[in-house]
Amino acid sequence: MMRIVIVGGGLSALRSAENLRKRGYEGELTVVADEPHLPYNRPPLSKEFLWGEATEDELAFGVPAEEADIEWKVGHSVVASNLDEKTLALSNGETLTYDGLVAATGVSSRRLPIPGPQEGRIVLRSLDDAISLKERLKPGARLVCLGAGFIGCEVARTARKVGCEVDIVAIDPVPMVVPLGKEVGAEVQRRHEHAGVRFHMGQSIAEMLGENRVEGVRLDDGTELPADFVLETVGSVPNTDWLSGNDLDLRNGVLTDAYLRCGAKPGVVAVGDVARFANPLFAADPLRIEHWQTAIDTTVFATATLMADLGLTHERPKPVSIMPWFWSDQGTVRMTSYGMLGIADSAEVVEGELNGECAVSYLRDGQPVGILLIGTEIKQRGARFKRQLAKARKEASAV
Ligand SMILES: Cc1cc2nc3c(=O)[nH]c(=O)nc-3n(C[C@H](O)[C@H](O)[C@H](O)COP(=O)(O)OP(=O)(O)OC[C@H]3O[C@@H](n4cnc5c(N)ncnc54)[C@H](O)[C@@H]3O)c2cc1C
User: Fold this and answer.
1) Domains identified in the chain, total number
2) Segment 80-92 mean pLDDT
3) Taking a C-beta distance cutoff of 8 angstroms, is the pair 340, 288 a contact?
4) Which of 8, 343, 364, 382 lies in the 20 to 30 Å Cα band around 118?
5) Which residue out of 124, 154, 273 has the highest number of ligand 1 atoms within 8 Å of its CB and is therefore the one to mutate?
6) What is the pLDDT of residue 380?
7) Is the pLDDT confidence value at 214 over 80?
C-alpha cells in the first residue's frame, strides 16, 4: 500500500493529513511529530493561555484519528532523510519508507550567544515553553524581554496584565519595525509604554548578570536592569536540518517551486512556516510566511500537488497564490493585517487616526501590498479592506 509521511506535528501537519483524506487518499498516512503532544493551537500561548483564559485542553485541535485513520508517531523526530531512496531516519532508530512526503516542521526560536548564566533564559515556541513561562508570570516578577517583535510585545502586555515589571530590549529603532515601519511601530510603542512597558531600543543584551542564574542583564550602553528571567524573542530558525544532504536549497527554510514541491524529484512538498515560496499575487521573491492562516492555506495547494504527482488524481495542481493574513493581540492593541507589509517601502493612514482606530495602507513602488487595521471596530470591516487589496493586487500582477 502507498504511504505518505508528514513530518512535523503542528497545524500544517494536521491540516495536510485532513486534506489528503478529504481529497480521497486511502493509503497509509503517518505523522512523525517530535513534541510529546498531539497538534495544538500556538497563538494563545502568548495570549489567552498565559493569562489563564484558555486551558491546555482547550488548545488541542482535536485529531480525527479514527475517522481519518492517521498513525501518529508522537515524541519522535526525523533526524535524517534520503529523498533519492525515499527513507527517513527517526530518533528512535526506526527507518520509515514513503511514497509521498510533506515537510511541515515549522521553526524554532533563535538563540543568541550571550555570556553569563544560562538558567533563567527562556523562549516561547511550544506548549511546554508556555507552561514554564506561565509559572514565572507572577505579580511583581521582573521580566526582561529581548526582542520587540509580535511575540515579545504580546507577552509583554500579558505580563503587565498579570502585574509583572516588564522591560523590552531590542536592537531595532521601534518595535516590529520590519513589518510595521517606523511611524506605526513608534505609535505601538507609545501605547505599550502607556500600559507600563519600558523600552530600551537600539540596544542588545551584552551580558546576563547573576551567579548561577539570571538576576539581571547589562545592556550595550552599560545600563543594568534587574530580571527574574529573560524571554528571548529574537526571531526564528526554520527546522530543516533533517532535510540536509539532499541537494535542496535550505537557506531560510526549504525553497519550493510554484506548486510547493521541493527538490527535483516529485512526491515531496513543504507547507507552513518552514516553506519558502514565491507568492505571485505579490510578485515577491520567495519568502517564508509565519502566519497561522498561511499554515492552513499552503496545505490546500501542497496536498493537491502531492496527489497529482503520486498519480492519485487527474486534477491538475494549481500554483500557490494566497492572501496572507494575520492578527496580533497585544493587550488593548489589536492588529489585523492582510497582504505582505514587510515588502512595503512606504505606509499611509487611509482611515481613522494613527493614535486611535485606523487603517494603514502599505505600498511598494506606489502599489498597495498590505493593509493593517488597528482596533477592534475597524477589524469588523476587514473583509472590505481585504477585497480592495485583492483587487489591487490582481490588477498590479496582471500588468
Ligand atoms: C507564541 C506564538 C504566538 C503566535 N501568534 C500568532 C498570531 O497571533 N497570529 C498568527 O497569524 N500567527 C501566530 N503564530 C504563528 C503560528 O502559530 C504559526 O504560523 C503556525 O503554528 C505554523 O504552523 P506549522 O505547522 O507550520 O509549524 P508549527 O506549528 O511550528 O509545527 C511544527 C512542528 O514540527 C515539529 N518538528 C520540527 N522538526 C521536527 C522533526 N525533525 N521531526 C518531527 N517533528 C519536528 C515541531 O516541534 C513542531 O511541533 C504564533 C506562534 C507562536 C509560537
Assistant:
1) 3
2) 97
3) no
4) 8
5) 273
6) 94
7) yes
